Each structure stands twice: as C-alpha cells, then as structure tokens.
Amino acid sequence: MFYLAYQYTRDFFHAEDIVQEAFLKAYKKIDSVDDYAKIGAWLSAITVRTAIDFLRSEKRKGCYLLDSDMLEPVAGTVENRDNIEEEVCARLFQEEVDRTMERLSVESQQVLILKIQYGLKETEIASLLKLKSGTVKTRLYRARKQLKRCLTPTG
C-alpha cells in the first residue's frame, strides 16, 4: 500500500498519511467485503483512490509537491485562500519559477509552458511543435531537471 501511495505522491510522508487514511477507510467498510481472498486488491484500490483524492485536494489548495524526480511549477493562483502566508509563499515561488524559466532554452520553455500552463499531453505537444513524442519527453525531463536544480537550495 505504501508503494502505491508513494508512486502517486513521490513523498514518503504524504504516502504514509495516505496509507493510514486508506486503512481507516477500509476499517470502516470491512463489512462490505464479500470475498476475503481479494482483500489485497480491495485495499490497493482504496489506496489508489485515496492517493488520487489527496492529489486533487492539494491541487485545489494550490499546493505542490517537490521531489527528486519531478517538479511542476504552480500554474496560476487559487482564489479564497484561508491563509495569507500560503498565498504569499505560493506567489513568491511562482515568481522565482518564472525568473528561472527565463534562463532555460527556448525549446525547454516551449514544452514546459505547453505542458504546465495549457495542460497538453506529450503527444499533443509533439504534434503542435512538429516533433517526435520521444523528443518532447526528453525535453520535458531535461527542463524539469534543470529547473529543479536552479530552484533547489544547495546544502
């Protein structure tokens, strides 16, 4: 269950929270299980749905997850935030991401903007830019890696 949750969040602490939440959901609905031989699949499905719900919740809040594999800048701002500090931090981070993106090559900027701001899939970006899908994936990977390297404090 932890592995599934981690695959979605790429964060150990969030994955632990998701597994705990999934177990609570399972405990509350254990009486609905008809075939106990399939309990592993049932728990996996609950874990996956809980992870997806978590990610949707984070997206609605305007939060973002940073990890060693992936970095997605925050696209836009969320209105009606409860916490002004969160809003200021998110805006400052967005400004830093925007400044950092200016240092990337034009090709990297193109694919990141199309992916993040417009939500296009790799195949759609490839078609639009008249590139191979593999080229787009490579550019996205390199652009994210370079962006993360510039944004992550060295210690």
From TrEMBL:
Entry keyword set: DNA-binding, Sigma factor, Transcription, Transcription regulation
Highest taxon of source: Bacteria
Family listed: Belongs to the sigma-70 factor family. ECF subfamily.
Name the UniProt record assigns to this protein: RNA polymerase sigma factor
RNA polymerase sigma-70 region domain span: 3-60
Species annotation: Neobacillus paridis
Record Pfam families: Sigma70_r2, Sigma70_r4_2
Domain called RNA polymerase sigma factor 70 region 4 type: residue spans: 95-147
Signal peptide: none
Annotated NCBIfam families: sigma70-ECF
InterPro entries: RNA_pol_sigma-70-like, RNA_pol_sigma-70_dom, RNA_pol_sigma70_ECF_CS, RNA_pol_sigma70_r2, RNA_pol_sigma70_r4_t2, RNA_pol_sigma_r2, RNA_pol_sigma_r3/r4-like, WH-like_DNA-bd_sf
Keyword hit for Phosphoprotein: no
